[in-house]
Fold this protein.
Amino acid sequence: MRIFKNSARKILSFVRKHKIISIIAIVIIIALFFFLRPKSGPKIETYTVKSEHFVKSISVDGTVNAESSVNLTFLAGGKLVYLGAKKGDNVFAGQTIGVLDQQTALKNLQAELIDYSKQRNEFEQTQEDNQNRTPTQALNDEMKRILQNNQYDLDKAINSVELFDLAKQNLVVTTPISGIVTRADVKSAGVNVSATTTFTIVDPQTLVFEMDVDEAEIADVKEGQKASITLNAFSEDSFKEKISSIDFATHTTATGGNAYTVTCSLSNIDKPFRIGMEGNAEIITDEKFDVISIPISSIVDNNYVYLKKEGNYKKVKVKIEEENDLNAVISKGLNINDQVVIDPTLLPKNGNKKAFGIF
């Protein structure tokens, strides 16, 4: 006891005489204690195996379009005397959209009808002069030529009348489908238009969502598959549709790759869809119910997982049936309620649950 007291007095005396050195020594001891003390290892999280709904899908961007639409133009330019619809108007099949000035066409048609009447009279007179014979019934070559030329002249007059009647009809533009006028290059009558003046009619009942699917993924896409569509304009809504068509021929995309156009009909026609709206579709290429699936991160060495049992971790071989970006379907090697390590890279190398650190 006396020895302990003497040692204590010596230490206190040393500390009083060497305060700075003593403080530095205490700081070093505390630092060593914190840095060299045993450290706890990272938290090993596990996933409880259960029966789940597995979905494999392809994510593709696309645009709203219409399967039924027409661009209407005049065959030639002229003065627009009637405008039957403007941009945004609803029109019905057969409705007149625009009419060009027909006065010149009418006069030309009337002149051709007069020429036709004169030619008809000449035709009948020639027939009468030749005993109403046909060219095949002609008595000689001269009569045959007269009768043939007579028929040619009449046919020419008829064709001229029909051509001018067609020209008159081409001064009128009608729509073959019902829908909405989405483009009208002219806003009022009384102005001159050209052959490039265009009226576009779109049938809103035929709206579709069109996507370009890369050729590397097109083999997994089939008509009738489900697709969940989200449009940028309705980001909070998801529309459940089905694949209605897949192009037979590939085309080159803007980025230079090869893709096929895949179409989904939009059945929610009560929504204010618009041509050109952009969005994304999740095409479900495979779907399984009541299967065992685990996070893809749990798999190591291609077909192994680590199970947690009684505080230790055991490496188990499994059979992987199918995978998506996040999960893998396991058909053999796991049971319901098994505890699978989510990130095996955090495990100690020997597989046992031990503390990590220097000690």
Remarks:
- Residues 1-37 form one domain.
- The chain has five domains: 1-37, 46-54+289-346, 58-67+203-287, 72-100+176-202, 102-170.
